[in-house]
Amino acid sequence: MNKELTKHFAPGHSACAGCGFPAIVRTILGEAKNEVVVANATGCLEVTSTLYPYSAWKVPYIHSAFENAAATISGVEKAYEILKRKGKIKKKIKFVAFGGDGGTYDIGLQSLSGALERGHNFLYVCYDNGGYMNTGNQRSSATPYGAFTETTPVGKKSFGKMETRKNLMEIVNAHRIAYLAQANVAYIADLKKKAKKALETEGPTFLLVFSPCTNNWKFPTSEYVALAKLATETNFWPLYEIENGKYKINFATEKPKPVSEFLKTQGRFKHLFKEENKKVLEEIQKLVNDEWQRLVDMTP
Amino acid sequence: MNKKNKLALTGGAAAAEALKQIEPEVMPIYPITPQTPIIETYAGFQANGEVDTEIIKVESEHSAMSAAIGASAAGARTATATSSQGLALMHEMLYIASGMRLPILMLVSARALAAPINIHGDHSDVMGCRDSGWIQIFCENGQEVYDKTIIGMRLAEKVKLPVMVIMDGFNTSHSVENLEILETKIVKEFVGRFEAINSLLDTDNPVSYGPVALQNSYFEFRIDEEEAMEKAFEEYQKIAKEFEKISGRKYEFFEKYQTEDAEKILVLTGSASGTSKVVIDKLRESGEKVGLLKIGLFRPFPHKEIAEALKNAKEIIVLDRAQSIGTNPPFYSEILNSFVGTGRDLSVPINKKIKSYIYGLGGRDIFQKQIEDVILGKHKGKYIK
């Protein structure tokens, strides 16, 4: 593989073919001008990159538990502050935490909020694959409405997940941090730009990146980029950023594709195309339209 | 011996004073009664420019221990403090701190656990983490808190295991005593400079902390940790001896009080030890051959030495300030283990009565009369309440 591309995160990790996060990690860390130290929440990224005695990480890395990547990196960052002040460390270092949606939207939300509020100098990246994929596909608060998971099974009385997704961007934005953005692994140039901004901004910054899961969303491994593109082209996953409180949409089309175009690519939404779930499908389209409109209304 | 400086301090303030002299580089803190005076006092030192420490005011004890782990792995000398529910909330992270072999120092103001909620002292919280791979050291009073905080920091860094220095919530943490404080220069020399290994900030030599270790390697990590804990016996003794040289105060694994010819020996720890010593003196005056063994180092537990110290007694009376619901209380179990073996070569037979009592739960006072009755066999039932 390209040496430059793998200078932070080596090949040989055991992530699935067609998984979104290796490209996310490489693209983001590739934009770091300075040295980086990484913290990681428990999850797919962690288990597939650090199977002892191997590690895919060519940069210093710490995984401590599931709910605390932000708290862990807080400690690392403050150690850096004082050791630099004492002259024990000379280099400039940037701190990056990675967590999945389970480790960020759910169990790690408190520690993320604490670290954002305290203003540590770090970038938090949430790779969102819409559920607890490492434990075999259970619902999280990021799982889309209507999706099948093992804890939102489809049955006579269930069409999959019956609750809508949590809007994490708005929650993070409530901390009034200088930069946060929603990105998608299928739009590498956009992700690069956002990573660069996030890494160059002093204080806490946040990236929420769409990361398809071939295994549990149920689609062919070769399709992850095409599918992820559809997420944005249907407005299911808009690309936008919030810089010093100002919203900016980074991708918009005159005629967004219907959300069903995105949903039909994945086994987890298969049941929605049955006659009895027609209403659910309509509801999803409405949710996407409403969310998009909210975003447009927020954007000057 | 050095110039002596006497100060009237609470146990919590004594801990803060020792921490000030150690001057950890990072201290993640979160409030909880009856620990709060430690971190408040330390925050005051920071506010007055008396120490240079990065204090991270985290949003929970779970995050306090997580940040401590991050800071320690980054090569900073790290300390924190907690109590009760806070320690329970940290539980997951305690194992991760010890599993990563991080020399974090934590002061614990030991307190009861809910439910029902109770803010007063007992040992339920620290007993709940006795298998977590932390070195645990109990203190009787403020002087011991001060001394063992200094010893504890050095021990942690020497054996690369985290250390918990434990005082009784309120009884010790909030009681003012006259204590002797060493000169800061002496303390700084004693603890030395912290030389980190495998620091996360050494970007030229990147390390991965906290990997996945499966069936082929996990077991070995666990064995290594146990070996480190075993090593703590020897290192504790060495460090305590050196400490005696600078302070004149001697600390062994446990304290023996009038045990030489004692037929009955009371075993306990913490603030009730002081009250019990008064009772022992009184009973000695009336001709009773009684003594006291005060547990100091609880993890690792010095079974062999304790069996040796108790071997001539006909009766051993163990007082626990915690339950282990469903089995014997913690100290009592350890005393029994001291005689029946824990994989060591123990030759002392159990030809003695070993009695178990529970006292002081949720801050209930214990009085001299009760201790006296227990020793004289007049007390009925297993609870001293």
Q: Can you characterise this structure?
A:
The complex is a heterodimer of chains A (300) and B (385). Chain A has one domain: Rossmann fold (3-Layer(aba) Sandwich). The relative contact order of chain A is 0.13. Chain A is globular, with a radius of gyration of 19 Å. In chain A, α1 crosses α7 and α3 packs parallel to α5. Chain A is built from 11 helices and 10 strands. Chain A is of the alpha/beta class and 300 residues long. In chain A, the strands form 2 sheets. Chain A has an 8-stranded mixed sheet, with helices on both faces. Chain A has a two-stranded antiparallel ribbon with strand order 5-6. By secondary structure, chain B is α/β, with parallel strands linked by helices. Chain B has 2 domains: 243 residues, Thiamin diphosphate (ThDP)-binding fold, Pyr/PP domains (Rossmann fold, 3-Layer(aba) Sandwich), CATH 3.40.50.970; 131 residues, Rossmann fold, CATH 3.40.50. Helices cover 40% and strands 19% of the residues of chain B. Chain B has a 6-stranded mixed sheet, sandwiched between helices. Chains A and B meet through β1, β2, α3 and α5 of A and β3, α3, α4 and β9 of B. β2 of chain A pairs parallel with β9 of chain B.
Question: Main traits of this protein?
Answer:
heterodimer, A: 300 residues, alpha/beta, Rossmann fold, eight-stranded mixed sheet, 36% helix, B: 385 residues, five-stranded mixed sheet, 12 helices, 19% strand
- Average of the residue pLDDT scores of chain A: 97
Main sheet: strands, sense, barrel of chain A: 8 strands, mixed
Q: What is the count of β-strands of chain B?
A: 16
Give the name of the CATH superfamily of chain A.
Answer: Thiamin diphosphate (ThDP)-binding fold, Pyr/PP domains
How many discrete structural domains of chain B? 2
Arithmetic mean pLDDT of chain B: 96
CATH fold name of the largest domain in chain B: Rossmann fold
